[in-house]
Records
---
Amino acid sequence: MSVTAIVRKPFVYKQYNATLALILINFFIFLITATFRPGLAQPLALNPLAVVDGNQWWQIFTYMFVHGNFSHILFNMLGLFFFGTQLEYRLGSSEFLLFYLLTGLLAGVFSLALYWFTGAYFVFLVGASGAVYAVLLAFATFFPNARIFLFGILPVPAPALVIGFTFIELFSQISGGRGNVAHFTHLAGFAFAFLYLVIRLGINPAKVFMGHHR
């Protein structure tokens, strides 16, 4: 069996509400860290010094289940609900769960490397945004004709929203705007989602966005 065949070996299609489970886990951890155990957020967040010097390598995974405040988790989980449920139905729960967790993990690894090599040792990265951005790109790839209503009013094609967010994140990072937002983590979510779709599923999002058959 070739390497490509192994990498692209599909899961048996099953539905077991992985999106809902992820949302519930995120809210449960937020409830615990916001009320009963506030100190738990720090060892779960991604801090370069804690990971590299303290060998707390679990943080490259757990950071995506920790959120800074209610609005932070609310918007992330709304995005996960609206885009994730439809993507999970299309891919199957096992494929979706692998996609979500792997892209979030790789976004964490990328962020750790970026922070470490740029000397940003005291950053504490939290939030599911990297994985949610990955879900958005995959949603736009599988549902390119979907319209997303910005502010509940303006209909925007899903691929255009991804492209727009990419430019906004790049501009925000370069200009230094919204300093508490991990723009490169969001972009890493897009990038790793792109690679996952190409390598694992054999789908090129760029061709889909340009109107070619995937």
---
Amino acid sequence: MNTTGHDHRAAIGAAWRELLGTPVATLEIDLGVEVLVIQPPPDEEPFSYLATVGLSDAAGANAFELLIAIAGRHTVGELAGLGNRLVALGGMGPMPGRVLALDGLSPFDRMPAVLVADYVPGEIEWLAAPAGRVRVLSVWPLFSSESDAATLLGDIEIMRLSHRTKVDLMDPGRAPLAIETLALDRIWADVEGWLRKHAPRAAEGLREGATDALLDELSDQLGLTLPADYRASLARHDGGGSLGGYEYLRADSVSSVAQGMAAVDPAWRRTFIPFASDGCGNLFCIDVGESPGVVSFERESGCQSEVARLRSRTFTAWLARYRDDLLAGGVYAADEDGLVTPL
């Protein structure tokens, strides 16, 4: 049955009312999309929902509407800008699990990214519409420190962490979640499991975690702040074993490697933190300079070494790629000595 855009939007508006309650205002946004402002009675805990109406006009299997929640008291006028940004986000075609950059998301202006997730993590919530069901997607604002790990973990683990730490994800004044540490623990558990099964000597080589005092000393020696995820990794395993076919460096050897490279190689930068070495001067490093990320540093005989910037922006993302390669097979294997080598 053919339906007009007006009929479709009316049906979506009615479905939102059934799910969330009666709107206190409707924001008219460009491109024919509306945003409903839904708030509880004054005697209930203050928060607001903003729900789009009309993003799903192009009906199909991927039709969706967006929903964002905001804790605290906010006037309709204060929420108008957020409504516009929500519609702009819808134009990017978000799907569950995607982390998207979205600057200027006032009142979440400290959080320059969002995670798009199903309204109920682990379940699909639908709105009834004349042209078929429309998926309900929630928008969760994220700090920069949360965005990479959010992609690795997914919405369910983030929601669990929110409940465990009692951090309200929809509070514009909230503190950052320790998502990087949770993601790192999950990734290391997968790596450890693969090593125990396929490369037991490499698993046995992983050392006990470094102390906070040792990590503080390393930071002082480097004159750099250790990235939180790399620091958490050393606190779990202070080097040992194999990462990407290289030796995972102990905390007490990182600064000496960095100082040695700085003394002999003009390509070395003081913002590099070496974390894995092949023993011949080839290294994986975290660059904490103006363009942060993981780099490959390869020594060249008689000329300047080559620095290649890898796709991973954080140590966690790099370790996740290594974990994925181990689990997928065809990239690394255990040799006859029980160590990990690239194929």
